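Researcher: Go.
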Amino acid sequence: MQKRVGIIGGSSPEIRHLKIAEELGKLIAQNGYILVNGGLKGVMEASARGAKAQGGLVIGILPGKSAQDANTYTDIAIPTGLGYLRNALVVLNSDVLVAIDGEYGTLSEIAYTQIYGKKVFGIETWDIRGVIAVDSPQAAIQHIQEYFQNRP
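Model: Structure:
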């Protein structure tokens, strides 16, 4: 089964965070992983754009009831009608996650990573226990590769 990497982050981040997300999306696709995110704008759209540029597959788990709400780079849109509660589904459908920037929605996703025992790396995001800080998309993908190599 193909490995799934979740990217979580802000819907209205700074330009540098969009660039980080797009680069990480590219690296995820180049390594043959499926990208999972919230399917909307900001970090979600930038990461999806990067993955699609490399021929990757993008799954967006949406807060609303319509698949039409997904950004144009999402291949599989899963509407939930759950609002922010869908954040748990983003986490549960990812093998490992990377948080980029983010506000309280991202913080809730980070909390779910800890509840469900998922590894989460962070780039310029919440500095809290459980988040393994990395300084670049390249460092994140290296840690992800190591995680998958050492996983039973």
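Model: The CA atoms of residues 3 and 142 lie 15 Å apart.
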